[in-house]
Amino acid sequence: MSWAERIIVALDVGSKGEVEEALDKLPQVRFVKVGMELFYSVGPQLLQILKDRGLKIFLDLKVHDIPNTAAGAMRSLSRAGCDLLNLHCAGGLEMMQRAREAVGEDTRLIGVTQLTSTNQRMLNNELGIPGTVEASVLHYAQMAKKANLAGVVCSPLEVATIKEVCGKDFLAVTPGVRPRGSATQDQKRTMTPSEALRAGSDYLVIGRPILASPDPNGAFLKIVEEIEVER
């Protein structure tokens, strides 16, 4: 797999027209992420449009509900032919197990540990979870492994520990990746692309530094070049 195929471009836009405009400017992108805003705006038909372009799809809806409802949601979503789907590990072991059983064999299910916008103060004071962010992420990752999920979504800062505990084949999909010189915006726990890959990330989720650039394709290729040089 090439470095370019390990970059998942987050299509953080709100309409079908914006998606097509963005993708026309990114001819070398092979993997994209569809989040809540876009999916809720355009609907499931968007996924077929992306598949017709030959793209792999990470459907990032972060399902979190009672086990039966979560399983039903995953059963429906996996029929759309996504390559990656996710849910919140905070829903518990049974929810993850039931969801995994409902997902088709061609779709890999991964669990969201802690959002990259979560820092220590927020974890302890707002979410009421004691201990460190890293400890919470690792706990969720171990539950996801026990539920037979393919991997987790986590900050690149936690990847090395997760790989050590859960195994090298356990996927680490990492948002919170910012090329050198990019603003972190609402992300709290970040790394550069090359740092994240050295830490063990399997896929890097990058959105605004590419889509918000005056030259999206140039920004994408610059990230690939940065990885190749620094790896």
Structural topology:
Layout: E1 7-10, H1 16-24, E2 31-34, H2 36-42, H3 45-52, E3 56-63, H4 67-78, E4 84-88, H5 93-102, E5 108-112, H6 120-126, H7 133-146, E6 151-153, H8 159-166, E7 171-174, H9 193-199, E8 203-206, H10 208-211, H11 216-230
Parallel strand pairs: 1-2, 1-8, 2-3, 3-4, 4-5, 5-6, 6-7, 7-8
Radius of gyration over all CA atoms, rounded? 17 Å
How many runs of DSSP E, i.e. beta strands? 8
- In round numbers, the mean pLDDT is 92
Share of helix, binned: 40-55%
- CATH homologous group name: Aldolase class I
The CATH topology: TIM Barrel
Strand count, sense and barrel status of the largest sheet are: 8 strands, parallel, barrel
Q: What's the level 1 CATH class?
A: Alpha Beta
Note the run of SSEs as H and E: EHEHHEHEHEHHEHEHEHH
Could you characterize what this model shows?
- This protein is of the alpha/beta class and 231 residues long.
- It has a single domain (4-230), classed as Aldolase class I (TIM Barrel), CATH 3.20.20.
- Helix content is 44%, strand content 16%.
- The chain has helices at 16-24, 36-42, 45-52, 67-78, 93-102, 120-126, 133-146, 159-166, 193-199, 208-211, 216-230, and strands spanning 7-10, 31-34, 56-63, 84-88, 108-112, 151-153, 171-174, 203-206.
- Strands 1-2-3-4-5-6-7-8 form an eight-stranded parallel barrel, surrounded by seven helices.
- β4 (84-88), α5 (93-102) and β5 (108-112) form a beta-alpha-beta unit.
- α4 packs parallel to α5 (93-102) and α7 (133-146) packs parallel to α8 (159-166).
- The mean pLDDT is 92.
